[in-house]
Amino acid sequence: RITLPPGAGNNGEVHPGMQIVYVESGRMNLRILGGQMKLRRANAKDGEYEMLNAPNEYEIRAGDTLHEPEACVHAPRNNGSEPLVILVASLIPKGAEPTVFLKERN
């Protein structure tokens, strides 16, 4: 479980393995900087997904689930007025850094 206070975020990050992210509460502004990921909205029918592509920004809401493939570069941010709470499950190689942060905003 990760909590981002209002205004928190980063300039970009990438993971060395796949992650599943569920938004428990709040809203996430997500910029895809490279690659793509799948989004399943809370109200989606079985098997229904949206593809999120670079270089676009999306609003991810409570109940939504993200499927982040390895090496998808993205920048999450909480632009809302309440905390953003996400649950994360990761398949990261043993010994690898789970997150690599970019130094500059693209």
Task: Give an overview of the whole structure.
The chain is an all-beta fold and 106 residues long. The protein has strands at residues 2-4, 13-14, 18-25, 27-34, 36-40, 50-53, 57-61, 65-68, 73-77, 84-91, 100-101. 0% of the residues lie in helices and 51% in strands. The chain has a six-stranded antiparallel sheet with strand order 1-10-3-8-5-6, with no helix packed on it. A three-stranded antiparallel sheet has the order 7-4-9, with no helix packed on it. It is globular and about 35 Å long.
* Major beta sheet summary: 6 strands, antiparallel
The ordered H/E elements are EEEEEEEEEEE
Q: What is the first-to-last residue Cα distance?
A: 27 Å
Estimate the helix proportion, in percent: under 10%
Shape estimate: globular
Average per-residue pLDDT, rounded, comes to 94
Number of helices: 0
Q: Roughly how many Å is the radius of gyration? A: 13 Å
Structural class: mainly beta
Spans of at least 5 consecutive residues whose pLDDT stays below 50 are none
Instruction: Provide the β-strand percentage band.
Output: over 45%
Tell me the total number of β-strands. 11
- Biggest β-sheet: strands ordered side by side in the sheet: 1-10-3-8-5-6
